[in-house]
Amino acid sequence: MDIFKTKNGPARGFRAAVDVVAVLGIPYAAPPFGANRFHAPLPAPAWTGVRDCTEFGPIAPQSAELPGAPVWSPGDEDILTLNIWTPAPDSGRLPVLVWIHGGAYTFGSSAQPDFDGTALARAGLVVVTLNYRIGFEGFGHVPGGEATGHPDNRGLLDQVAALRWVRENIASFGGDPDNVTIAGQSSGAASVACLMVMDRARGLFHRAIAHSPASPCYTRDIAAATTREVAAAAGCPATPEGLASMTPQALVTASDQVVDDYRRDPASGSRHYDPSLYAPVLDGDVLPADPLTGMAAGATREVDLLVCHTTEEYWLLDAVGSCAKITTDEQLALFAQDFGLPDGLVAGYRAAMPDAPVLDVYLAVFGDLLFGEYGNRLAEAHARAGGRAFLSRFDRRRTGPGGVVRAWHCADVPFVFGNLDDDSLAFLIGGTPTPADHELARRMMCAWVDFATEGNPGWPMVDNSTAQAHIWSADDGLVDDKPADDKPADNKPTAPLAPPALPALPALRDLRALWVGGDFPLLRP
Questions:
Q1: Is the dihedral of CA 210, 118, 138, 164 positive or negative?
Q2: Would the pLDDT of 21 be above 80?
Q3: How far apart are CA 411 and CA 4, in angstroms?
Q4: What is the domain partition of the chain in residue ranges?
Q5: Helix or strand run (H / E) with residue 84
Q6: Residue 211 known to be catalytic
Q7: Does residue 190 register a pLDDT over 90?
Q8: Which of 97, 101, 194, 262 is the most buried (most CB within 10 A)?
Q9: Which of 277, 317, 316 is nearest to 105 (CA)?
Q10: Ramachandran angles phi, psi of 11, nearest 5°
């Protein structure tokens, strides 16, 4: 029987494939409601008898309904659970991959169909996925903070609790607690970057994979201002008692109302374009520094880092109606002003995209601003501080029934998990996968497995003179990621180049300066 011993009690899984056992919905911490609400996670209670772990646990409070994924039901409380796929529980210790889902710190769960760990387990990993608190429950600032037992970054603390559970229990599932890789996408990737600089997470993992890391961390002032807006929308005082008097459903509804207010108001500043109310808070305790600063200071040099972003990130956000539609020069100029972009940056993109409509220029700038350049800078800062870093870009396109299928946000995830055939993912990848798609997925999975096993995905590391990015497409290759005048005259690529989606832009130097100078406009109130 597929029964596994944990410190809380035995758990029964099921055969997800002939050679893979899945164990789903294992509690790693106590339900974070009632007396535990807005507090750091507490240990999961023990159970007697064998716990049936054949279904995903409840997901965190949210309003999103994602294709193929469960929805949150008010009253669901045992949300801090994780899931394991293991190929060989009795064959020694295998590398462990712990996946942190994205969703703007507001939606998503480990139960999404693209996160099924069966294919990666068959490739040689023990795969762990987890739920954690999101929205106000996980990232909303409660006045008083740690002094009143209500720390910031409760969602990050949940992730740390899950990693501690993995360290203490994963050997029973055939995993090696001394060879753990954390991985995530979007806000999950940004969580990975935060965990890398958190003292509380030190020693709990050894490598890190960040796909499309989202950039912003918020100051306490920004987080406190958001709390006041949400409390006003909920009709309660912005106090610990007032917030606790609101149900999780009420705070989800209030947060959605605040987001909608920003979307409707073009004069509301940077949050108008794609409102993200919640993000990790620079509280000086749980999160002592933003990841870029921490990496530059060498805080993460002992952890190997693999960064990837898609070449057309923001086209997905436009397709699903998540971001403002910018179609005129006047709107584009206001966008640049609202984000404090340097003079000439938009003109640089226009020069590189001479025939593109305004909307495409806006999406290219926004995607690089929030995802592409931030990820590149993380890898460079890590390498310059003495760490091992690798870069890649996902640039797979195809022509589908509706036209060209973009290399957009989230499109890479089904490939690295090897889950291309689920009908609910057809929108992301543009319809039925082709044999070339399956071959690309095989190569991407191999890179993840090799990196998690030995710290080498199969292409050169970033160093001080080159930032070569591996291109994931039908024809893989390397492209040099530095502008020409940033490189020594004798610098030559070590492998054939594959063209990126957009040419290397002089304007990217201005985006790079925002990150290196530490003055990114999203950190401003």
A1: negative
A2: yes
A3: 34
A4: 15-36+53-525
A5: strand 81-86
A6: no
A7: yes
A8: 97
A9: 277
A10: -130, 135
| pLDDT for residue 128 | 98
Contact 27, 80 (CB under 8 A): yes
The strand pairing partners of 198, in sequence order, are none
The yes-or-no answer on residue 313 being catalytic is yes
Residue at 452: amino acid letter: A
C-alpha–C-alpha distance, residues 19 and 17, integer Å: 5
Alpha carbon 139 to chain centroid, angstroms = 15
Neighbours of 334 (CB within 10 A): 17
In the set 101, 109, 141, 186, the catalytic residue is 186
Pairing mode, strands 3-6 and 9-12? antiparallel
Per annotation, catalytic residue among 187, 409, 470, 473:
409
What pLDDT digit, counting tens, does each position of 256-285 carry? 999 999 999 999 999 999 999 999 999 999
Bridge partner residues of 208 (DSSP): 182, 305
Catalytic residue among 137, 313, 373, 380: 313
pLDDT for residue 405: 84
Give the integer Cα–Cα distance in Å for 17 and 2.
12
Amino acid sitting at position 391: L
pLDDT of residue 501: 36
Average pLDDT, the chain: 88
Phi, psi of 455 (to 5 degrees): 80, 20
Query: Which range has the worst mean pLDDT, 27-36, 357-366, 395-404, 487-496?
Result: 487-496
Q: How much is the pTM?
A: 0.92
Lowest mean pLDDT segment, chosen from 33-47, 450-464, 483-497: 483-497
| CA–CA dist 320, 274 (Å, integer) | 12
For 281, residues 6+ apart whose C-beta sits below 8 A from its C-beta are 139, 141, 152, 153, 217, 218, 219, 220, 223, 287
Q: The CATH number of 15-36+53-525 is which of 3.30.750.24, 3.40.50.20, 3.40.50.2000, 3.40.50.1820?
A: 3.40.50.1820
**Residue with the larger pLDDT of the pair 499 and 21:** 21
Helices (H) and strands (E) in the chain, counts: 17, 18
Q: Please enumerate in sequence order all residues whose Cβ is within 8 A of that of 492, keeping only pairs 6 or more positions apart, or say none.
A: none
